[in-house]
Amino acid sequence: MIGLVNRSLHARKKTRAIVLQNKLADTSFIGGQFVFFSAQWLVLTICALSPLKVNSAAPESVLAIAGNYFGHAYNGANLDPVTTVMAFDDNGRFMGRYKVDDESRPFEGTLSGLIQEGERAFSMEWTDMDGEGFVYMEFNKDYSAFVGSWTTTDGDEQFPWNGKRQ
User: Fold this and answer.
1) 68 and 130 together in one domain
2) How many other CB atoms are found less than 10 A from the CB of residue 56?
């Protein structure tokens, strides 16, 4: 598992770096119009877009992770209780969040960018008030629990994050 975690997190870091390096422009969806603002040239392009309804849902093997999980994640100098919630909207879009019960101040974060790395293994990005990074979770056969690890975007150290379905 460690080899897969290292390869997966390294690939995610590399992709993130490329995205950050190429972020020279900004796009927005304003009033039913797609607007492109270039940071290098004064260019404004507006294209009318028709809203598209996506009828494809995520595969069952991915949807199986949806649920509320209670466990622990390394935070600061110890393991703190964490509630991890993973869900999908009607179009199969992943939505995740977590709450860490830190002894000094509980805080919440979001999970995004879900990638299936193996049969029951997933990676995603985490974001909270302390920063951002990547998390890797491997689920047991009935998806009732996961063991995993997290890292920051620029860190090589991995820290535990686990959960059991509520």
Assistant:
1) yes
2) 7
Strands, sheet with 33-38, edge to edge from the N-terminal-most edge strand: 25-30, 33-38, 44-48
137 and 67 share one domain? yes
The reported pTM is: 0.68
Domain assignment present for residue 118? The answer is yes
What are the φ and ψ backbone dihedral angles of 148, each rounded to 5 degrees?
-165, -175
Helix (H/G/I), strand (E/B), else coil: 5: helix
Q: Which domain does 30 fall in, by range?
A: 17-52
- The b/e string for 72-94 (b: 16+ C-beta within 10 A; e otherwise) is bbbbeeeebebbbbbebeeeeeb
Residue 11's pLDDT is: 54
**Rounded to 5°, angle at Cα 92 from 49 and 148:** 130
Instruction: Count the neighbouring beta carbons within 10 Å of the beta carbon of residue 60.
Output: 7
Query: Is 6 inside a domain boundary?
Result: no
Mean pLDDT calculated for residue range 108-113: 98
pLDDT at 83 over 90: yes
Q: How far apart are CA 100 and CA 98, in angstroms?
A: 7
pLDDT recorded at residue 95 = 96
| Residue 139 exposed, middle or buried by CB count within 10 Å (0-12, 13-18, 19+) | buried
